[in-house]
């Protein structure tokens, strides 16, 4: 998988005492953003399948968004929903 190093976006969740961040990277030549979360950085168990794409210092791909330009509000909301679905944060 190749990513366009000109495009990435930090997505944060800063509610209820949490300070969690994921990073979105845009695939080269595609309108798809892959969102990565570093479970080790937060001392969290990785519920994502071992076969999922992972990179040192970036973490594990937790989901993808098909969209030409990912804006912070949309990406952060999707990250928040993922955190809820994984029961990492209470909703």
Structure description:
This protein is of the alpha+beta class and 91 residues long. It has one domain (3-85). It is 15% helix and 38% strand. A hairpin with a 4-residue loop joins strand 2 and strand 3 (32-37).
Offer a quick outline of the entry:
The protein has 91 residues and is an alpha+beta fold.
Topology diagram in text:
Elements: E1 3-13, E2 20-27, E3 32-37, E4 54-55, E5 59-66, H1 72-85
Antiparallel strand pairs: 1-2, 2-3, 3-5, 4-5
Q: What's the rounded overall pLDDT mean? A: 92
Largest sheet: 5 strands, antiparallel
Class derived from helix and strand content = alpha+beta
Number of strands: 5
Oligomer: single chain
Shape: globular
InterPro entries: DUF3986
Organism: Metabacillus sediminis
Protein name: DUF3986 family protein
Pfam family, one: DUF3986
Features:
single chain; five-stranded antiparallel beta sheet; globular; alpha+beta; 91 residues; 1 helix
């Amino acid at each position: 998988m190749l990513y366009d190093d000109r495009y990435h976006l930090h997505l944060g969740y800063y509610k209820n005492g949490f300070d969690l961040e994921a990073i979105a990277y845009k695939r080269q030549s595609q309108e798809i953003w892959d969102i990565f979360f570093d479970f080790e950085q937060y001392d969290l168990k990785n519920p994502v399948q071992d076969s999922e794409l992972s990179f040192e210092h970036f973490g594990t791909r937790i989901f993808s968004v098909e969209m030409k330009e990912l804006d912070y509000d949309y990406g952060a909301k999707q990250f928040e929903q993922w955190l809820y679905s994984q029961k990492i944060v209470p909703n």
